[in-house]
Amino acid sequence: MVKKAFITGITGQDGSYLADLLISKGYEVHGLIRKESSLNTSRIEHLLVNPFEPERNFFLYYGDLSDGARLTNLLYDISPDEIYHLGGQTSGKEGFDLPEYTGNINALGTIRLLEALRRSGLKAKFFHASSFEMFGVSPPPYNESTPFRPRSPLGAANAYAYFMTVTYREHYNVFACNSIMFDHESPRRFETIPTRKTTRAIARILAGTQKNLYLGTLDPVRDWGYAPEYVEAMWLMLQHEKPDDYVVGSGAGHSVGEFVKEAFSYVGLDWEQYLKKDPRPHASAGAVYVADASKAKKVLGWQPKVSYKELARIMVDADMETLGLKSPGEGKAILEKYKLNTTDRTSGNSVGGLEEWPGLRKYS
Ligand code: NAP
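^ thats the input. predicted complex w/ NAP below
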């Protein structure tokens, strides 16, 4: 029997890589996309198939995490074996501008989906992607026993969703797992995050269409990994015999400044010549977040391979090639070495999908 997966956040970085992974494993993939005035399908364009194709394995549905009735109907209609909940407001900074919205989508949106699952009576396994933002002012190490002391709307909303996922597991016996994800990047990462902002700026500087890169503090230390390896951890959690919660990260910490220098020096540019200070205050200045993912390694056998230096090369190569520039190519060699996806594409502001997938409206 072909397994069916339902993914929220399928148009995002992780959702798109997860869809790639599941399709490569023979799954039928069903994804939720938001009804916006323009479609944001640039990360999944390669998966869109003609809706008149009888053998297709990729389906999209309009819906929103604010709409519980729609989620209930979709689960009832699709009857998935596995649910991967990756959708939501994902920016820590924007959480401060949109605290009510962040709570509604990330916290209550998770409840709507869990309730839809409970009410449907399905036995689907449930995965929720949560984040290190929940640790807030707790000191390291950051493992599954570290208390959550969030100090941001995003961290607080994610903590609520985390504990409700645990509650549905323990109270309703749902096979439900949380991951506490640390930063993971890729050419599909959204463009305002410092890593992607940097690699995209480098490509544009080389193409002569951008002069400077504006960043806030270079001090925050983060644990950066390569996103396609992280979606593998999500899948492994739902294949394990017991549902549980796992920290997912590389265990290595590097500052934003280190990433910036690495990315610029890869293409022979002097970063100091191009970097300008963004003077606006930054909530996470000085914070050091590095994962202790030893449980995921021990129980799931999951351990990422791509280092932050390799990640910078992968991302610079992809951003350069998107602009039609010849990249140094080391990033592609790294992907080949680790047998990872070498045909990646960057995410951009481009909107697409309707022409390639004319039935989107009709079949949603
Ligand atoms: P992303 O690229 O920002 O994608 C977010 C996805 O959520 C998009 O598909 C977005 O749809 C969708 N979404 C937003 N609001 C929605 C709503 N109201 N209803 C339905 N869908 C909605 O994020 P990501 O990097 O893939 O992250 C995936 C998950 O991992 C998130 O839960 C995130 O918090 C967690 N996480 C990620 C990282 C990381 O480093 N990437 C670290 C920690 C935790 P649109 O395309 O329409 O905007």
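Residues 8-9, 11-15, 32, 34, 40, 64-66, 86-90, 105, 129, 131, 181, 183-184, 190 surround NAP (CB under 6 Å).
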